[in-house]
Amino acid sequence: MTALFEPYTLRELTIPNRVWMPPMCQYSAAPEGPETGVPTDWHFAHYAARATGGTGLIIVEATAVSPQGRISPYDLGIWNDTQVEAFRRITRFLSAQGTVPAIQLAHAGRKASTDRPWKGGAPVGPDAHGWDSVAPSPLAFDDRHPAPAELTVDQIKDVVGQFAAAARRALAAGFEVAEIHGAHGYLINEFLSPHSNHRTDAYGGSYENRTRFALEVVDAVREVWPDDKPLFFRISATEWLEDGGWSADDTVRFAVDLRAHGIDLLDVSTGGNASGVRIPTGPGYQVPFAARVKNETDLPVAAVGLITDVEQAEKILANGEADAVLLGRELLRDPSWARHAARELGGEVRVPDQYHRSV
Known about the structure:
This protein has about 350 residues and is an alpha/beta fold. Helix content is about 35%, strand content about 15%. It starts with 7 loop residues before the first strand and ends in a 14-residue tail after the last helix.
């Protein structure tokens, strides 16, 4: 048994292998009307291809808990029953292929209301389906973004409730895992970081105050998410700032808190909350942050960040640096990466009967 193709159990859920797909926005939903935020044929084909390719767990892209929480007008959402019904088509197919369907619940905060990346990704206004963004503090992400409105305490409570309602709908839609998006400069990450959170009330200032919103969201989701199903949290382990930002030390400390509040696995990424920073990218450049959490806490972790090679992925797991690997760009290039890796390592992965000739 190779490490990459060893099943992995969290709570009462067993995932068939450690080749996982991270959330990657497709910006392909309708921007307005009754189909706003609803998965389309593109989403079905996109996720179905990776499931038939043997991926053990697929985390559906950042899915907004409210219309205001979308990154772009073209993002998926899970704030109404029309969206739930469309998601069922995807989760049924993934489950039938032996792939565990997961979903990332998200709120974009001050980085909301932007155009699709291939259109430049600039902020958009009402004339292009845009809206006013919100954040912990009225600080713009960069020179292109307008300053967001500062959330009131009552509005913060409303957003916590939106995450809980989204989790209920995710369960109804057939998802087996929920992931809370606390990374990449979106709303929860904005609260965590002193770089973006300048509040002076109970949600700003000290570490305990800056983590308060995130833990309230975790508690609200965990309360409605079944005890037998895992709950993940995605974090930016560092902002790559020399000072004034969220650090790797903060991440290790916070991992302990997340574990105590019912999080089962930390999905470890980096960056996204500060513009203009230099990030030293390279193969597996974010893996050391996951490894540190794994080595210094008892919270399981998944590693991400330019993991492309089969031997590289196997080594990360065999060396105890992570419990699973998340392959983003590589799964975009090769939907059957897991099947090819199993052949190379001598592992086993489910192959659909219709594809038996490819074995």
